[in-house]
Design goal:
- By secondary structure, this protein is mainly beta.
- The protein folds into two domains: 53 residues, no CATH class; 119 residues, no CATH class.
- The chain contains two helices and eleven strands, in the order H-E-H-E-E-E-E-E-E-E-E-E-E.
- The strands form two sheets. Strands 3, 4, 5, 6, 7, 8, 9, 10 and 11 form a nine-stranded mixed beta sheet that branches.
- The longest helix is centred in the N-terminal third of the chain and has 18 residues.
- It is elongated.
Length: 173
């Protein structure tokens, strides 16, 4: 029980320090909000409209829908998924329950599956693997879907919208 509380506190501190960087934070912005009582996150010296910056981090952790440090970051190294949080990019080893990212390059083994909005390169292993644009490499799962396949799909149902597909083994080039 004490270990769980300590872990939760460490995650909260990690998330808070990643969200609020020097020169950014909560402010009253009359021009954006239109009302003097509106309190919003504003940019202060860079970043994005949400008031925090994106990072390239060596270790990424998703806990339920939250991505630490934040969803606009990219993970280059190890990503652990204890939920389904989103990252802008995942490059390296991706392990856990469900992986969701803008772009994926590396080796991923998630028992529910993978979702890459754009491209995926490497190995994807999971029950369901979905790539929004182009997959280069190997997808192994119960259901595999991609728009353009440059590799091999092994699964019960395989879909590649730019070519003929076959169940069990599908090869694209």
């Amino acid at each position: 029980m004490k270990i769980g509380i300590a872990f939760a506190m460490a995650c909260a501190v990690f998330a808070a320090t990643a969200q609020f960087q020097p020169g950014q934070g909560i402010a009253n912005d009359h021009a954006r909000g239109g009302n003097a009582r509106d309190v919003v996150f504003v940019e202060r010296g860079g970043g994005n409209p949400y008031g925090y910056r994106s990072y390239d981090t060596a270790i990424g952790l998703t806990v339920l829908p939250w991505s630490l440090p934040n969803e606009e970051s990219s993970v280059t190294g190890l990503r652990l998924n204890l939920g389904w949080g989103y990252y802008a990019g995942t490059y390296g080893l991706d392990l856990g329950a469900f992986s969701n990212s803008g772009e994926f390059r590396g080796v991923g083994a998630n028992w529910i599956g993978h979702l890459a909005d754009k491209d995926a390169k490497g190995l994807q292993v999971g029950l369901v693997n979905v790539t929004g644009h182009r997959a280069v490499g190997l997808q192994i799962g119960l259901v595999n879907y991609v728009e353009r396949l440059e590799g091999v799909q092994i699964g019960l149902l395989n879909f590649a919208t730019s070519q003929w597909t076959f169940p069990f083994i599908n090869i694209g080039w």
